[in-house]
Specification:
Blueprint lengths: L1 H4 L14 H20 L4 H32 L10
């Protein structure tokens, strides 16, 4: 791997010989991220739990809001009756 990294594995006239260090660096960067995501796959359960809790919170807030809207509508707080003069 070190030989390929330094570009020594390519022949002298190869057009990518000078770029091999850059290409291998980019390649190893993505390989490193791949290993990170494989190792990090166990935390997906915690992320799903977080998303689930957030969804429950939002649904609960919407429920409370709709309850308050119904209460306001039934007591005419939002739309007071027109004065009968």
């Amino acid at each position: 791997m070190a030989i390929a990294w330094h570009g020594l594995i390519l022949p002298a006239g190869h057009p990518l010989r000078g770029d091999c260090f850059l290409l291998m660096t980019i390649f190893m960067f993505f390989v490193g991220f791949g290993f990170f995501f494989i190792a990090d796959a166990g935390s997906g359960r915690a992320y799903r739990r977080h998303v689930h809790e957030e969804a429950k919170r939002i649904i609960y807030q919407l429920y409370i809001q709709s309850y308050q809207d119904r209460q306001n509508a039934s007591t005419n707080k939002r739309f007071p009756p027109e004065s009968s003069t």
